[in-house]
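lol ok so funny story. i was supposed to be doing the assay writeup but got distracted and ended up predicting the structure for this chain instead. priorities right. anyway since i did it might as well share w the group, maybe its usefull for someone
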Amino acid sequence: RTDRLISWGNSNPSEHLKLFSDSSQAAREEGRSKETNNQSRKTIYIALAQAIFLHDESIEIRAMCEQDPSQFVPVVERRLAGLRKKYRSKLAVLTGTGAGRTYEELLETDLARNLIGAVRERFPWFDNLHGWWKSNLAYNLVYSNANPSQD
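and the output, tada:
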């Protein structure tokens, strides 16, 4: 189910930006307009729930989702909260070893690459979530655009 959640986010970049509060800074850096949410979050959560549960292995779950996908919104919200918590804890471990370096800078060192490999092994969605959340302070508490060589 988490794989379907990630796949939906990757296939619907505009929706996931709206859902996770698009960063003005990220939009500027990527040369695009900031995505604003002109619909309720619940509408996006319902679309996400349908992407996840209409393809479930369980016939009962699929039928429940077909009948009323909104009943799965709390399930999706809890899963995203859990992913956010895991993402933050893994990122804290990685950046704690890097003395102020960004995740991308850590990829340049052998030791960090080994640690990142271990994180990916235990949490295979890390790279996708990092792509979504790396510049969003609501998700990434260690995000910084400062140059570590500056005083």
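Residues 143-151 have pLDDT under 50 and may be disordered. The CA atoms of residues 2 and 79 lie 8 Å apart.
back to the writeup now i swear
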